[in-house]
Amino acid sequence: MINYLGKALLASCWFMLLTLPVMGIRLNTVDQTVEWQFDRVLMLGAAIFFLSMLWNWCFRRKARGLPLLGLPAALGKGLGELFRLPTRNARTRAVSLGAVLLIMLLMPHVSSFYQTNIMISALLYVMLALGLNIAVGIAGQLVLGYVAFYAVGAYSYALLNQAFGLGFWTCLPVGGFMAVLFGLALGFPVLRLRGDYLAIVTLGFGEIVRLTLLNWASLTGGSGGIKDIPAPGFFGMQMDIDVSTMFVYYIVLAAVVVTIVVISRLKNSRVGLALQALREDEIACEAMGINLARVKLSAFALSSCWAGFAGVIFAAKTSFINPASFTFMESAMILSMVVLGGMGSIVGVVIAAMILILAPEYLRAFSEYRMLIFGAIMVVMMIFRPQGLVTGERRRYRITKLHGDAAQ
Amino acid sequence: MSHYSETTDVDKDASTQPRNDASRAQEAAPKPPVLDAAIVEDQPESSVASAPARRTPSIGSRPVLEVEELTQDFGGLRALNELDLTVNEGEIVALIGPNGAGKTTFFNCVTGIYTPTEGRVYLYDAQKRRQLLNGRKPHDITAMGMARTFQNIRLFGDMTVLENVMIGRHCRTSAGIWGALARTRAARREEQETIDISYALLESVHLEQFWNERAHNLPYGAQRRLEIARALATNPRMLLLDEPAAGMNPQETKELEELVRRLRDSRDLSILLIEHDMGMVMSLSDRIYVMEYGSRIASGAPEEVRANPRVIQAYLGESDDA
User: Fold this and answer.
1) Which of B57, B110, B71 is nearest to B284 (CA)?
2) What are the beta bridge partners of residue B72?
């Protein structure tokens, strides 16, 4: 205990010393005097002392394998049960999924236009994060330029609409297809790469796409972007902006549901197992008869196609796109969602994407500290829960010999 | 160097001939067509029923794996030097040699992880046709019927034991992305088959109680057996085991030896193993190849290799009482 007190004291003293010139000295320009503000420095020191103690306490709990929040036993158990309830059996699962879906369906009718708009972008990010989850979480291929595929989708719609007047519904599959082509174009050269090298190349790829969009002004309009992209039509119906937004909301909600269904089926299939094996060990993967090139390319293609779809919807929703929407920051954000949610977990990634997009919107009061809080959350998560929010989502297998013949 | 192998090769042929005749009579009897060799033939529960039908070890003179003058250079280093090796049907052959002799390099060349600098590797397919393996990709070679385990265990650690074996079935199944998304009847049936075959394979290596555990949580010896089950899931006719007994205690080694023998006897399988445990090598192998500095220095039946002065000098010097 004395040891920890000493450490905390040392940390706070060190911090006070470091911040003394910035926090403690103030130049009074009127009187031409130097003012010492020791009270501020001391307050800071006290805060650091307290934080350091808290930090140490958390670490000791972690070392003893205790949960970070020491809730009373009964409450903790109750909460645990509550969280596990949706996964307990098929019925609770169906009921909770149905409830979530119902809330999501009713949401645009009870909330404001502004909130519907926020929810649309949150759902778009859910889609992006789920798509990236295929490459990063399931197949273990660290892709840092994912936003490039998002841009490809968005620009596919914008350009095809501008040049040929193609509508949203035609461009939705085309955008996905274009993104897959780009995914394969990236996939071929990086077949031999893994880990850090792959990350660097994909990072470069993202930048190449963005810079091309920025500088090929004759085609893409450069930094001015493309405007007047039409919203999705519904059999030529005239819609005002409210109805149109609601319509986009339902489109993106449907797209998210489709994404979840597709990915959960994919993950548990023969192809999905091969993708997971790729993440675990490439050499063993090859030796077990898995065509490495094919599996890697499928990972890239399956992953990029969702970004393409999301891009088309994004272009239709905002009606204006330019390269500023497709910076590395976006890629990093999407990757954070996958990492925070838990690699390979569908529920976790959905929750993380929702939190990371909705929290800043509803906490506008702290908007100046947004990145600071974000960074702090990432650090704390990586130390105390590196596996992400949700883990251990495992498929249950039915073995004929043990469980009898399945009713097929 | 060559005159050792010359004499021992002749001796080998003589020694395997009688067993060969005995097994040929066995082979003459019409065997039920084995649709899927991965379906375990001697499950513990049914061993009583199948005991009379149990095949004797059928060591044929027909080769399964033929390696001719295999050479592998790494820059200026010659890791393998014109190595010849043959494994016949139903044989258990051991490849031994001091550390760094090039045994694992040999495995990597044969399974396509390395591309050999020179020489030829042939695998005989189920129709006894000779297929050249040089330049083929590892997954292709696995699909042709050669499977391996790794010296430093390479399991898919974060996946369950059952899933590890299921991945071995990958090259014998065909469901694609469409099958996965639509969950077609064919895809579901294939998947259930994969699950059941994989579970049966786990039973054959006595890992069935761990089927739903993560692979990296298994004890060491069990991980080695899981690697064998995973390799068997690819329906190999040629199985390469890279130090299967490394890190096992004597009891586990004994069980492993039983397992390898049982697998050979119950399946259409030939086995080539790298092993340092001399007791196991001597009692298990039909023939032994000895390597030193990338070259073969001797080959033949265990007792011959044991008596070979060159081998004693190079390798068995300190442990020839094994």
Assistant:
1) B57
2) B80
DSSP string, B288-321: EEEEETTEEEEEE-HHHHHH-HHHHHHTGGGTTT
Helices (H), A342-369: 346-362
Burial label for A170, CB within 10 Å (0-12, 13-18, 19+), is: middle
Spatial separation of the C-alpha atoms in residues B235 and B267, rounded to whole Å:
10
* Residue with tokens 């003293």, as numbered in its chain: A13
Residues 289-308 of B with CB under 8 A from A: none
Measure the CA–CA gap between B253 and B216, rounded to whole angstroms: 20
Q: Which of A281, A393, A397 to mutate to test the interface with B (most CBs of B within 10 A)?
A: A397
pLDDT tens sequence for chain A (408 residues): 678 888 888 989 998 888 888 888 888 888 888 888 888 889 989 999 998 888 888 888 878 877 666 666 667 677 777 777 676 677 888 888 888 999 999 888 888 889 999 999 999 999 999 999 999 999 999 999 999 999 999 999 999 999 998 999 999 999 999 999 999 999 998 888 878 899 999 999 999 999 999 999 999 888 899 988 988 877 777 778 888 899 999 999 999 999 999 999 999 899 999 999 999 999 999 999 999 999 999 999 999 999 999 999 999 999 999 999 999 999 999 999 999 999 889 999 999 999 999 888 888 787 788 888 888 888 888 888 888 888 766 777 888 888 776 544
The residue to which tokens 């940390």 are assigned: A11
Specify whether the CB–CB gap between A178 and A159 falls below 8 A.
no
Residues contacting residue B108 through CB under 8 Å, at least 6 positions apart: B114
Which residue from A minimizes the CA distance to B185? A408
Q: At what angle do helices A241-267 and A346-362 cross, to 10 degrees?
A: 150
End-to-end Cα spacing for chain A: 61
Query: What pTM does this model have?
Result: 0.82
Taking the C-alpha atoms of residue B180 and residue A193, their distance in angstroms, rounded to an integer, is 27
**Which among A152, A135, A173, A196 is positioned nearest to A334, based on CA atoms?**
A135
**CA–CA separation, A290 and B137 (whole Å):** 10
Sign of CA dihedral A161, A165, A169, A175: negative
Judge: B142–A269 Cβ closer than 8 Å, yes or no. Answer: no
Provide ipTM, 2 decimals.
0.82
Give residue A271's identity as a one-letter amino acid code: V
As given in the structure block, the two tokens for residue A128 are 């992006």
B162 contacts in chain A (CB < 8 Å): 397, 399
Of the residues B177, B217, B235, the best mutation for testing chain A's interface (the one with the most A CB atoms within 10 Å of its CB) is B177
Burial letters for B114-125: b for 16+ Cβ neighbours within 10 Å, e otherwise? bebeebebbbbe
* CB-based contacts of B17-21 (< 8 A; 24+ apart in sequence): B17/B61, B19/B57, B19/B59, B20/B59, B20/B60, B20/B61
Distance in angstroms (rounded) separating the CA atoms of residues B137 and B114: 9
CB B64 within 8 A of CB B236: no
Instruction: Confirm if B216 and B160 have CB atoms less than 8 A apart.
Output: no
- The answer for residues whose C-beta is within 8 angstroms of residue A281's C-beta and 6 or more apart is B154, B155, B156, B157
**Do the Cβ atoms of B230 and A288 come within 8 Å?**
yes
Q: DSSP 3-state assignment of B197?
A: helix
* Interface contact flag, B139 A289, Cβ < 8 Å: yes
Q: What is the DSSP letter of A326?
A: G
3-state secondary structure at position A277:
helix
- DSSP type of residue B90: T
